[in-house]
Amino acid sequence: NAGVTQTPKFRVLKTGQSMTLLCAQDMNHEYMYWYRQDPGMGLRLIHYSVGEGTTAKGEVPDGYNVSRLKKQNFLLGLESAAPSQTSVYFCASSYSAGLNTGELFFGEGSRLTVL
Amino acid sequence: GENVEQHPSTLSVQEGDSAVIKCTYSDSASNYFPWYKQELGKGPQLIIDIRSNVGEKKDQRIAVTLNKTAKHFSLHITETQPEDSAVYFCAASKSSASKIIFGSGTRLSIRP
What we know:
The complex is a heterodimer. By secondary structure, chain A is an all-beta fold. Chain A has strands at 4-7, 10-13, 19-25, 31-38, 42-51, 54-57, 65-67, 73-78, 87-94, 104-106, 110-114. Chain A is built from no helices and eleven strands. In chain A, a hairpin with a 2-residue loop joins strand 5 and strand 6 (54-57). Chain B is mostly beta strands. The chains are: A mainly beta, B mainly beta. Chain A binds chain B through residues 4, 31, 33, 35, 40-45, 48, 50, 58-59, 90, 92, 94, 97-99, 101, 103-104, 106-109, and chain B through 1, 6, 9, 32, 34, 36, 41-46, 49, 89, 93, 95-105.
């Protein structure tokens, strides 16, 4: 059972380039999230999805776009990368929310460097 | 929106001693408070959580306490061991929403 898988694990971009991070989960979870982790700032929510075909903004959505075309996949896109987007990105999924807010299952992270 | 503050940012304790990490939250409607542990090079993992209908929860050497009036909650680790060295995150969430907001993290080091 793979759980939450992120690809790629490492990427170096030049300013202005675009890229997509892919998150795949095999636990049939409804909810999926993208967070970024920066030193001293913890985990900040970028975007999240409560189901196939739906997305919503988190705390720091600017400069990112997301899509959830299939329940098992959640894509994070950077249209024009900036050095401020250098970070470690984590995808997570959850089996429930609302009254029974569930445990988040995280991937192992994707380290992105923008030069 | 919700804001979660976490202290201290770093903590060093002698093996066998206790460690306490504290968090405060801003949204009085929040009612779910998980704690995550992140080991080097890995994603965070849930270690314990508490909901607003209880004031304390224990699981072996770890415990969480919640004070809803003061809007703060704490993680207590007793009899610390080397494998407790990691970064710990607190978080808060409302039952009516699906966003889980994290604190800034505490790097815990256990001295032999």
